[in-house]
From TrEMBL:
Native source organism of the sequence: Eurystomus gularis
Name this protein carries in UniProt: SNX29 protein
Any Pfam family matching the protein: RUN
Signal peptide start-end: none
SUPFAM superfamilies documented for this protein: RUN domain-like
CDD domains: RUN_SNX29
Lineage: Eukaryota, Metazoa, Chordata, Craniata, Vertebrata
Length: 209
C-alpha cells in the first residue's frame, strides 16, 4: 500500500515536467560542485523542482545518502522522508506557492499547473498525518532498476499492479474467512437463514455451573 501511495505521488510530481536543456545543465553543475561524477540524467525528474524549495541543510541531507546515487532516487527519498516526518503537506504548499517558478519547470497542461486539481494535493497530504510511516529512505532500490527515467505511465502501471495484487490478496483473505466461518458448526447454526427463533448462546464446555 505504501509503494502504491508513493507511486501515485511520484506520478503527480513527474507529470508534465519540461524537457529543458537548461535544467539538465543546472543539475550537472550542482553535481560537479558537490563532487559527484555520475552521469546526468537526460530526462527531467521532479527532484529538479523539489530541491528548489529545500534549504542548504536539507539538500546536503539527501546528497549525503550512501546508497542513493541518482536524482530519481533523491526525489523518491525526499518523498518518503516527508511521509515519515509528516512534512509533505508543508512541502506541497511550498511547491505550489510560486506560480512563476512552477511554470519554469512544468508545462501548462501538467497536473501541478492545474489549480483545481493541484489544490487537492495538500489536503490529501494532510490526511496522511495520522498515519505513522517508517520507510527506509537510504535504499538503493529507489535509484531505479534502469538508467532511464520512469515515465508517468510506468509509475501508474506500477501503482496499478500493486492495487491489483492487493485486491487479489484481499479477496482471497475474505474467501478463506468465509470458509472458516461456514465450516464452524457453532457459528453456522447462528447464520442459518431458515432459523425461526433467536439462537441460543454458545457456551464453552469448560464453564462451571
Amino acid at each position: 500500500r505504501v509503494t502504491c501511495l508513493c507511486a501515485q505521488f511520484e506520478a503527480v510530481l513527474q507529470h508534465g515536467l519540461r524537457r529543458s536543456r537548461g535544467l539538465a545543465l543546472t543539475a550537472a553543475a550542482i553535481k560537479q560542485a558537490a563532487g559527484f561524477s555520475s552521469k546526468t540524467e537526460t530526462e527531467p525528474v521532479f527532484w529538479y523542482y523539489v530541491k528548489e524549495v529545500l534549504n542548504k541543510h536539507e539538500l546536503q541531507r539527501f546528497y549525503s545518502l550512501k546508497t542513493i546515487t541518482t536524482d530519481i532516487g533523491r526525489g523518491r527519498a525526499w518523498l518518503r522522508c516527508a511521509l515519515n516526518e509528516h512534512s509533505l503537506e508543508r512541502y506541497v504548499h511550498m511547491l505550489l506557492a510560486d506560480k512563476n517558478r512552477l511554470s519554469v519547470f512544468y508545462e501548462d497542461w501538467s497536473f501541478m499547473m492545474d489549480e483545481e486539481r493541484s489544490s487537492m494535493i495538500p489536503t490529501m497530504a494532510a490526511g496522511l498525518n495520522s498515519i505513522l510511516f517508517a520507510i527506509n529512505i537510504d535504499n538503493k532500490d529507489l535509484n531505479g532498476q534502469s538508467k532511464c527515467t520512469p515515465t508517468v505511465s510506468d509509475l501508474l502501471k506500477e501503482s496499478t499492479q500493486n492495487v491489483t495484487s492487493l485486491l487479489k490478496e484481499s479477496t482471497q483473505g475474505v474467501s478463506s474467512l468465509l470458509r472458516e466461518i461456514t465450516t464452524s458448526s457453532a457459528v453456522s447454526i447462528l447464520i442459518k437463514p431458515d432459523q425461526d427463533t433467536d439462537p441460543l448462546p454458545v457456551l464453552s464446555k469448560n464453564v462451571n455451573a
